[in-house]
Write a structure and sequence with these properties.
Blueprint: H1 4-9, H2 18-34, H3 41-61, H4 64-74, H5 83-86, H6 90-102, H7 107-128
Length: 143
């Protein structure tokens, strides 16, 4: 089994563009944090749906997705969502489910929840959008 330093040393051939990673992380953080505010429940939910929806749209409409598709197809692989790409989103889903329980939270708690969600999304984003997986494509028989 390779060591962590060996695994991390593999370069990602198509890195996630910073505006996509930053924008989506911020939007997901705002979406989760909105559910812990003192706003009316309808406004909370509308804000959350808008933020998460725009974040997902930002991922799937950016041109780098076509570069990922081309990269995989050149190597004879299918471009599709895999379970490993969705697993890092579980803590965000859990935060979305638990945030309304804390409402109305203090401003510092809402900010902390949004910041924690932002930080998690920033950290795992290359795994969620599939760009980190590309580092291992040439080493594996199948992805």
């Amino acid at each position: 089994m390779p060591s962590i330093s060996e695994v991390r040393s593999l370069p990602t051939p198509i890195p996630t563009p910073t505006p996509v990673r930053l924008g989506t992380s911020v939007l997901f953080g705002l979406g989760v944090a909105a559910l812990s505010t003192s706003l009316p429940r309808g406004v909370q939910v509308a804000t959350m749906v808008l933020c998460i929806g725009v974040g997902v749209a930002l991922i799937f409409t950016h041109p780098y997705r076509q570069r990922i598709r081309s990269y995989l197809e050149e190597r004879g692989m299918e471009y599709r969502t895999r379970a490993g790409m969705l697993m890092p989103l579980f803590p965000v889903w859990l935060a979305l489910m638990l945030a309304p329980v804390t409402a109305p939270a203090a401003l510092w708690a809402t900010a902390l929840l949004g910041l924690a969600t932002f930080g998690w999304m920033w950290l795992v984003f290359p795994h969620v959008d599939g760009t980190r997986m590309l580092a291992y494509v040439d080493q594996a028989d199948t992805v």
